[in-house]
Amino acid sequence: MDLYDVMRTTPAVREFTDDPLPDEVLERILEHARFAPSGGNRQGVRVVVVRDQDTRCALAELGLPAARRYTAQVANGESPWNPLRPPGIDAATIEATQPPAQMSAPCRQAPVVLVVCLNLGVVAATDQKLDRIAVVPGASVYPFVWNLLLAARNEGYGGVLTTMVVAEEEKVKDLLHIPDPYAIAAVVPLGKPVRQLTKLRRRPVPEFVTSEFFDGAPFAG
């Protein structure tokens, strides 16, 4: 596929057919994804390929507590898991909330789930002393995750970047024998999409790009 076509037609895929994702195809996806950049080219990414159904279901279960909070906050008109605004609902309400089945279905149904980890011992977190949530370390792992999804699209497969299980990171690390100083950055179910979207809804460039200053004029080439 043309590169721009791949970029414009790679959706978040959460529903998969029963088609397998052969090892040789997955290896090809990983082979191309590995060329993503990372800070200092330190390449601190590690990937665990999970095919076992029991393990995939265990990952789905570990994502449910975060999914409950997400669902409860959305129902309350909040931006879920926002670092600047604590939940406006109590813990009992969150615990009683039943998240939609589709929030855990991808891990249960995809033929392959990739657990993407980042070695914190090799990242350069230049924002570590700022009074906010650190985001810079993600630069050394999320380009790789996006490359995975682009490569999967090119091969006729699809997936979705999920993070619900990260809220239960220690339990996930125990499940998969992940040592310190690795952090879990993403869980990516991959498989053959039930349907392939070709038109994605995204804001036009002038709505989020400005010239010279944040409050400058909208950029339009």
UniProtKB/TrEMBL annotation:
Keywords in alphabetical order: Oxidoreductase
Q: Which InterPro entries match?
A: Nitroreductase (IPR029479), Nitroreductase-like (IPR000415)
Q: Which Pfam families match?
A: Nitroreductase (PF00881)
Q: Which organism is it from?
A: Mycobacterium sherrisii
The Nitroreductase domain extends over 12-192
Report what the protein is called: Nitroreductase
- What's one GO MF term for it? oxidoreductase activity
Q: Give the protein family.
A: Belongs to the nitroreductase family.
